[in-house]
Design brief:
The chain has a 7-stranded antiparallel sheet with strand order 6-5-1-2-3-4-7. By secondary structure, the protein is of the alpha+beta class. Helix content is 28%, strand content 26%. Strand 5 (120-126) and strand 6 form a beta hairpin. It is built from 4 helices and 7 strands.
Length: 162
C-alpha cells in the first residue's frame, strides 16, 4: 500500500513540476540553512554529478540515473540498453538548486537497506552523501527526482537524446 501511495505521490509531483515548470523550493526545519544560503556550494556545477537509483518494489525495479556535470544523463534499466540524453536546462537548474539545499555532509553515505518485503528504495547520491528520497532532509529533492524518474527513463521533452 505504501508503494502505491509513493507511486501516486510521485506521479502527482511530476505532473505538478511539468505544469509549473519549476522545482520544489521548500526547505526542512532544524539545522538546515535558509533557502538563500545553499549548504553545499555556491555554483551549480558543484552540485553535480547526481546519482538516483530505484530498486525493489513489487515490480522489481532496478533503475539508475546518473547526471553528469554537463547535464548529460545516463539512464539504465533492468533488461534494457543504457540511454544517454541531455537534460533540459531549466530542469537541470531546478534540480541543482534542490541539491544545493541539502546538507550532504550531514546526510552521510550509508547505503539504504530494505525495510520490508517489496520495499522500493529511491536513493539519491550527491556531494558525498547518500540517502533515501523519503528522508526529510531530502525534501527539496522530492519533486525534481520524481519527475526525473518519470520522464528521463523515456527521453523526450525533459531529456533530449544525445
Amino acid at each position: 500500500m505504501r508503494n502505491l501511495r509513493l507511486a501516486a505521490a510521485s506521479a502527482t509531483a511530476a505532473a505538478g513540476l511539468l505544469l509549473a515548470g519549476c522545482g520544489d523550493d521548500s526547505t526542512t526545519s532544524g539545522s538546515s540553512p535558509s533557502p538563500s544560503t545553499p549548504p553545499s556550494s555556491s555554483t551549480p556545477g558543484d552540485a553535480l554529478p547526481i546519482t538516483v537509483t530505484r530498486t525493489g518494489g513489487f515490480a522489481g525495479f532496478d533503475d539508475k540515473v546518473v547526471i553528469g556535470t554537463d547535464g548529460v544523463t545516463t539512464v539504465t534499466r533492468r533488461g534494457k540498453p543504457a540511454v544517454k540524453c541531455k537534460l533540459d536546462a531549466a530542469f537541470l537548474t531546478s534540480l541543482t538548486d534542490a541539491v544545493q539545499q541539502v546538507d550532504w555532509a550531514a546526510i552521510g553515505s550509508t547505503k539504504p537497506s530494505i525495510r520490508h518485503p517489496d520495499d522500493m528504495i529511491i536513493a539519491v547520491s550527491a556531494g558525498g552523501g547518500l540517502a533515501r528520497l523519503e528522508d526529510p532532509r531530502l525534501e527539496p529533492m522530492a519533486t525534481p527526482v520524481s519527475a526525473l524518474l518519470t520522464e528521463a527513463a523515456a527521453p523526450g521533452k525533459l531529456c533530449k537524446p544525445v
